[in-house]
Amino acid sequence: MKYLLLLLCSMSLQAEWHDWTEKEQNLFKDFIALHLIDTHITYKTTNDFDAVIESNPLLGNNPSPESLILHKAITTAGLYYLLDKDSHRARQRSLKIINGVYTGIVLHNGYVGFDIRKEF
Asked: Alpha-carbon distance 4 to 61, whole Å?
């Protein structure tokens, strides 16, 4: 599992960024960080509490760490591929929107995990 995490973390470093600005690269790295946080929250919460289930139908109710990381890696690679074809302006705007939405998702998932832990 730790090797899969290292792979996911280093994806942005392995990519050919020659036409991405530094700001775009940093926004994409923020996206990867949000994915890692979401993966950790999802795994910990679904494994610590039987009443919590994953709502993503592609992952199942109680996903393994490997399936979570594989899902995130495929999503990240697909997003990179699509963004790489965009213009600088569209890429930066898209990354800001995606990171904003994903920040909301991470905050919601963190709140759910915190709220459940308070009850126990």
From this structure: 21
One-letter amino acid at 51 equals: A
76 neighbors 32 (Cβ within 8 angstroms): yes
* pLDDT band for position 81 (cuts 50, 70, 90): very high
Residue with tokens 């940093």: 26
User: Residue 102: what pLDDT?
Assistant: 94
CA–CA distance from 77 to each of 18, 53, 61, 74, 119 (Å)?
17, 26, 24, 5, 38
- CA neighbours closer than 13 Å in the CB half-sphere of residue 46: 19
pTM (predicted TM-score): 0.78
pLDDT of residue 17: 74
d(CA 5, CA 32): 11
